[in-house]
Amino acid sequence: MKLKSRRNFLKRTGLITIGSMVFPIISKGISGTKITLLGDSIRMNYQPYVSLYMMDSNEIWGPDENCMYSTHLLANADKWIKNQKADIIHLNAGLHDIKTIPYNSQKNLVPISSYIDNIERIIKYIHNYWPECRIIWANITPIDNEKSAASQAERQDFNRYNEDVIHYNEAAEKLLNRLGIPVNDLFSFVMEGDKNKIMKEDGVHFTDFGNQLLGEKVADAIALFL
After folding, report:
1. Residue 15's pLDDT is what?
2. Which superfamily does CATH assign the domain made up of 2-35+58-223 to?
């Protein structure tokens, strides 16, 4: 089940202006809802905007460090999940998993079978400690192959390919559908937008405007469960 934006139907409790940007504040729904955001640098960059959109009385938390690949997220589950009670967890992993190392290799850092196994273990871990917690999985955001390769050409440490993003997302979605976990389709959200405005020249990360849009998309997905 993929989550789609329902901005027109979400209750807004007001607006906040920061600089030249205006942010809607989403109703808290339930007082003191604890929301955890887990994921890589994409999550780290949109998290401040999620907090702005949902600043009413929701408690937004995410680790200061990059959760990186799925194995790293699983290895730190005690710190980021067990010891951090949450009513809703929105999480992602994959951009580090799909890295091909060494440079120009076709072998992914975390094979797709291991990636799917890690996702299932992460979800079971959450359900084990917080059985009432609602889980939302954000799929991997797109890669601009040409720009990504150019940005890595000097260091030649690894590559990323959008074809791998698609394959990993498709495999993950099959698992998540079976487990009844909704998917926040950030991949399609980015692909349908103006990538020249929302993506940086490295072909992976996002501009401030792009992070703002992603933050709203994530906030909307979370708000459906408040």
Report:
1. 44
2. SGNH hydrolase (3.40.50.1110)
